[in-house]
Amino acid sequence: MLIIRPEPLTAEAFKPFGDVIETADRDFFMINNGSTQRFHRLARVMLGQAGDSGIISIFRAQQIPMPLEVKMLERHPQGSQAFVPLKQNPFLVLVAPAGETPDPAAIRAFITDGTQGVNYHTGVWHHPVLSCVEEDDFLVVDREGEGNNCDEHFFADDTQILLQTP
Ligand SMILES: NC(=O)N[C@@H](O)C(=O)O
Ligand code: NI
């Protein structure tokens, strides 16, 4: 059985999978006559084809019991997907590099600090949102357009992966 334990989310560690959306130690410039700091372009919305839209939604996620037997990961082949917590709760991020299918040996788990969001780049394998509290709200920015934008990969029954939280 492959046991995966989350590591603290950092921009550097998450680079192979996408962007961390945060203000800590990030550059900003002043706008609004000096009353507002703009932390500019922390991530880009990736789209797949002409006519696609970047859309903003709210996901109200119920907590999934831990430890989690990881049965599947998904990817969005035509766009990025960003999750920004609306209630300052940490959440779990489970990812694997983009590719034809997710490599169990390359799966990484991260725990956010409550202020951080993530932007999965196009095609990056990830588990559907994993709330760390009974119910949590996330602002989600992703792609809407023609064609399929969600591939699910279910691991074989003999591939046992366990996400173990502290
Ligand atoms: N399916 C859907 O919109 N949500 C997932 O993509 C997810 O990453 O939670
Ligand atoms: Ni997704």
Automatic annotation (TrEMBL):
Keywords for this protein: Lyase, Purine metabolism
Gene of this entry: allA
Name of the featured protein: Ureidoglycolate lyase
Cofactor(s) this protein cannot do without: Ni(2+)
Gene3D superfamilies xref list: Ureidoglycolate hydrolase
Origin species: Marinobacterium mangrovicola
Family: Belongs to the ureidoglycolate lyase family.
Keyword Lyase annotated: yes
HAMAP family in the cross-refs: Ureidogly_lyase
EC number: 4.3.2.3
GO molecular function, one term: ureidoglycolate lyase activity
Database matches in InterPro entries: RmlC_Cupin_sf, UAH_cupin, Ureidogly_lyase, Ureidogly_lyase_bac, Ureidoglycolate_lyase_dom_sf
Keyword check for NADP: no
Any one GO biological process: purine nucleobase catabolic process
One Pfam family hit: Ureidogly_lyase
Catalytic activity: (S)-ureidoglycolate = urea + glyoxylate
Biological function: Catalyzes the catabolism of the allantoin degradation intermediate (S)-ureidoglycolate, generating urea and glyoxylate. Involved in the utilization of allantoin as nitrogen source.
Quaternary structure (record): Homodimer.
Pathway this chain belongs to: Nitrogen metabolism; (S)-allantoin degradation
PANTHER family documented for this protein: UREIDOGLYCOLATE HYDROLASE, UREIDOGLYCOLATE LYASE
Broad enzyme group: lyase
